[in-house]
Amino acid sequence: MAALGLTCYTANLHRYLDAEWDADRLIASSIRLSVRADGDRLAFSHHAPPLDRLPDGSLLRYRGTHSVPPALPYLAAELKRHGRTLVVTDSARLPWSVTYGGPPAPHWLLIDGHRADSWHAVDEFTALLPDGRRQHGHRGWLSTAELSTAMAVPPSWTPEQHRRNTLAFGSPVPVPAAAALWLHRSPGTSGPARSTDAEGWLTGDDTVLPFLANRLSGDGALLSRHLEDLWAAAGHRCFACRHRLAAEPDDDTRQELEATLARWERLPQTLRIATESADRGRPRLSLIRASLTGLLHMPDDEQAPEGAR
């Protein structure tokens, strides 16, 4: 299944995983929405079990250097060991990105080849963005200078962007304060995988969606700040629904899944309309509340994947 609906993190992680395992199953079975109040902001987690622990027991962890050139030998070493690696780039510095030249935003990119002064990049991220623009994927060679430009991390991400980096796998992982970042694959430990469930997080749609409806329907600025997080949640849930539909033989269950899919597909556009209205000083509170609580009218087993309730 194509990585349709996945964010730039999970779309390119999907490509990384698919080289060895069933990436569709791994990602679809992990998808659930969890949220926590964090001061005057929110934190969102989209995966349980977290995706940093790979099926062979190895772990993906951020590594960093004080500038890009020292990072390049590490990327080459990852390619030699595993045939691919994920790097953190700034989407505003990727020539094929529709956000090129705009505000900085973290973007994972898969590198799966290296020759002389060039690196082969694969970007599986294809989506209708929260602002309504269409982003297409990309494959091609980048010079070392072009890759270095894209990997040059800005002095600081926004608080929301930093949380997304930290929670990209579902459970929080350390993100070094560095000028260049990539994901290093290392042997795992025998300890249990970390979970957000015991750290003050709300889990399960019957709890999370009413909470979000109450918090966001009364705060247009908060809605605008977290529009991208809600867009990611919708895309992920659509991916999980499509995965189930592909293997579901029962007609009644298929109809329920199709109805669920349609509701989550409508959410980003509805929230974008509400956000634009709030930005103009005319918040449509009832629309926000209805769009989020309306997602609860779905089969019980679709409210959260097994193991995440």
3D architecture notes:
A hairpin with a 2-residue loop joins strand 1 and strand 2. This protein is α+β, with helices and mostly antiparallel strands. The chain has a six-stranded antiparallel sheet, sandwiched between helices. A three-stranded antiparallel sheet has the order 2-1-11. The model is unreliable at 298-309 (pLDDT under 50). The protein has two domains: 8-186, Cathepsin B, Chain A (Alpha-Beta Complex); 204-302, no CATH class. It has helices spanning 8-18, 23-30, 72-82, 144-151, 159-166, 205-217, 220-225, 227-247, 251-279, 285-293, and strands spanning 31-38, 41-47, 59-65, 85-90, 106-115, 118-123, 127-128, 134-135, 138-143, 180-186, 202-203. It contains ten helices and eleven strands. The protein is globular, with a radius of gyration of 19 Å. The longest helix is centred in the last third of the chain and has 29 residues, at 251-279. The chain starts with 7 loop residues before the first helix and ends in a 16-residue tail after the last helix.
SSE layout:
Layout lengths: L7 H11 L4 H8 E8 L2 E7 L11 E7 L6 H11 L2 E6 L15 E10 L2 E6 L3 E2 L5 E2 L2 E6 H8 L7 H8 L13 E7 L15 E2 L1 H13 L2 H6 L1 H21 L3 H29 L5 H9 L16
Antiparallel strand pairs: 1-2, 1-11, 3-10, 4-5, 4-10, 5-6, 6-9, 7-8
**What is the overall shape?**
globular
Counting structural domains, the number is 2
Spatial separation of the terminal alpha carbons: 26 Å
CATH topology of the largest domain: Cathepsin B, Chain A
Instruction: Report the mean per-residue pLDDT as an integer.
Output: 90
Number of helices: 10
Radius of gyration based on Cα positions: 19 Å
Percentage of residues in helical conformation:
40-55%
Strand runs, count: 11
Main CATH class of the largest domain = Alpha Beta
Mind telling me which CATH architecture of the largest domain this is? Alpha-Beta Complex
Spatially, the strands of the biggest sheet line up as 3-10-4-5-6-9
**Largest sheet entry:** 6 strands, antiparallel
Estimated structural class: alpha+beta
The helix/strand order is HHEEEHEEEEEEHHEEHHHHH
The portion of residues forming beta strands comes to 15-25%
Poorly predicted runs: 298-309
